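C-alpha cells please, single chain.
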Amino acid sequence: MDRLEALKHPTRASRRSARALAERTRRKHVDTHNKNVIHCRTEAAYTCQSSLLSLLHAKSYNTLRPIYQDDSQRSIEFEWSFPTGSYQVPFSALLEALCCQETILSKLPFLDALQQNLVDALHLLHSHNISFPVSTSYLAFSRHHSEKWNEIRSLRLFLPFNKKACWASDQLPSSWKTDQLTCAESIFFVPKLLIRLAATPGPTVLDLASQQALAVYLKDHPCYKYDDKYCLNISPLTAELAHQIAYCLAVRGMAEKSRDVLESFFGGPLPLPEPDTPPDIICETFSNLRACTVESGKHRADNIVLDHDLEAKLLVDSPAMVARFVCCRAKVASVLKQPDRRQWWLIAMDLYDAFLSSQGPSSRLERACAFDLYHYRPVPS
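Here you go.
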C-alpha cells in the first residue's frame, strides 16, 4: 500500500529527475534539428572542425563562430560571424553581379583581393595540418544590407561549413596543399577572364584551357548574360564553347544572336537536310562545313599561330556535337517561328536518337528531342 501511495504521489526528487530527463530529451531533439549545430561522426572530424573554426575566427575571417561544444555528442553550436548588418550570399552572386557591370575593368583589383584572402586562409589552415578543399559550394560572401545587390565591392569573403575539411594524413596525395591553392585560384579564373573579355573591344584569341573553363561556367550558369555581353568577340571558337554560347542564347530567347553564332561557326546559314537523310550523312555534312570554315580562317589570319591542341578542338569531329548544334538551330527556328521549324526538330530528334539517346538527355533541348515535347513526330496509326 505504501508503494502504491508513493507511485501516486511522487517525491520532489523524483519529479526533478523526471523534469531533468525530459529537458535532456528536448535539448537533444532540438539540437538534432537545429541548423546552427554541426554534428561530427568521428572524433577526428570533431577536433578538426573545432580547430579550423577557432583558427579562422581568431584571424578575423568571416566564418562560423563556435559558441558551445559538446565533446560527448561531438557537436559544435555556432552562430553566423557576419559583420553587423550583413547577410550571406552564394558565390553565384559574384557571377550575377558581373553580368550587370558597366565599368567591369575596375573590379579586377577587388577580385585579386578576394582571391588573396582565400589563399591566405588556406595557408593558415595548411600550417596547422588541416586540409580544406575549396569549390564554389564551400565558398560564399557576405554583404551589408545597405549595399546594392550588383555592387561587387560590397562582397566580403565568407567561409561556411566545409564537410570535406579534415586533418591531413597519408591518404592525401603529397601535393594536397598545392592542389588546394591552385583550385582556389581557379575559382576566380573565369570571373577574371570575363573582365579581360569585356576590356577587349575587338576579336580575342583564348587558349584551349580558357575556352574549356568558360564553356563549363556557361553550362553551369546558362541564365547569366555572359554569352552576349562578353563572349561574342572570342575568335576562333572551339566547338564546345560555340555550342554552349549558342545554346545559352537560344534558351534565353535571343534566337537571332544564337543564329549568328551558329552561322559564324559554320561559315554561313546552316543547310536544312532533306527528309530521310541518314544521320551519318548529316554529321559528315556539318563536319565538313566547319572544316572549310576553319581552313578559310587560317588564310585570313596568317599572323595568328594557334596551339595544336586548340586547333584540333575547333573542328566538329563528334556526331553527338553535331546533334547538339542542330538542337540549337531547331530552337532558333521555333523562337523565330520559321516555317521550317518542324523539319529542323525532326532532324534534331533523328540525330538525338542516333547519337545521344544512349546516355539520356543532358539539357532542355535534348529533353525536347527525347520526349518530342513539340509533338512534331507523326502519331502512329
